[in-house]
Each structure stands twice: as structure tokens, then as C-alpha cells.
Amino acid sequence: MIVVFDAKCLLCIAWVRFILKHDQRQAVRFVSMQGVTGQRLLWDAGLDVDNLSTLLVLDNHGRSFQHTAAVLRVLHALGWPWRLAWAGWFVPALLCDAAYRWVARRRYQLFGRTDVCMLPSAWALRVAGRRAAPAAPRPRVPRARCPARCAVA
Questions:
Q1: Rounded to whole angstroms, how far apart are CA atoms 98 and 113?
Q2: pLDDT for 45-82, tens place per residue?
Q3: Fewer C-beta neighbours within 10 Å, C or N terminus of the chain?
Q4: Which letter does DSSP use for residue 34 in this model?
Q5: Distance between CA atoms of residues 142 and 147, nearest Å
Q6: How far apart are CA 1 and CA 57, in angstroms?
Q7: What are phi and psi of 49, to 5 degrees?
């Protein structure tokens, strides 16, 4: 499973950290939407790269998910107890996705943004597909020196 996320958004970065912490099987990989690979995946999914306000999740079968469906797919992949979030499927997608889009459009105002890489060192290993060792969060590093190559512009 691949998660394409906004590496400038503090809410999105917190979501990635949450996944890194709880993904015991290490089934989830991450791609920044600001990077070349992330933009290609978004374009392939038919999404507007410049005005994106959703999380994109690609499963192992090539299917893509957005908005609430993407969040629920990731939580399902994390296993128990996070699979209990599947109860969210009982709420109409129209309501869940409307709430998701409202927050997504205001994510910078509500949660802030950054221009430096704030992801833990496990990030580089997960992107590369190697097994990540537990690591303490890395201090903020300017983009030019970021070993994770987050492609935060």
C-alpha cells in the first residue's frame, strides 16, 4: 500500500507518523505529493496535482482511494484495534467525505504548514522499502540536507 501525502501539511505529517508507529507489518509505504513520484501517481489517478485536497492511497491491486475511503483503507491495513474504524463505512460517504474535504481545504490554517522535513529517520528506510529500525524523531533539517529526500518545496 502506498500513501501519497502532503509533506508541507502538519496534519498530514502527523498522520504519517501515526501510521509509522502502528504499522507493525510495515505494509504501508509513503510518497510526498511534492516529489516527482508523488506527482506522477496523482496524475495517473486523474487528480489535479496543483489543487489537491485529499490523501491518495494505492493498494497492492492497483486500486486508488481518496478522502474517507483512503483513511479507512489505511486503518484497516494497520490491523487491530484500528480495523474497528471500518464501522465508519456505515456513515454515508456523502457526510464523511464532506467533513474530510472541509478539513482538507483548511488544513494549513487549522494545523499549520512547514517547509522543512519533520519526519522520523524511519521514513527513509520505509520509502526505500527496507525494514525500519525503531528510531527517535529526527530534528528539523533544511530540505537541501534532508537525507530522506522528502521533496518539500
A1: 22
A2: 888 777 777 888 888 888 888 888 888 888 888 888 87
A3: C
A4: T
A5: 10
A6: 7
A7: -65, -35
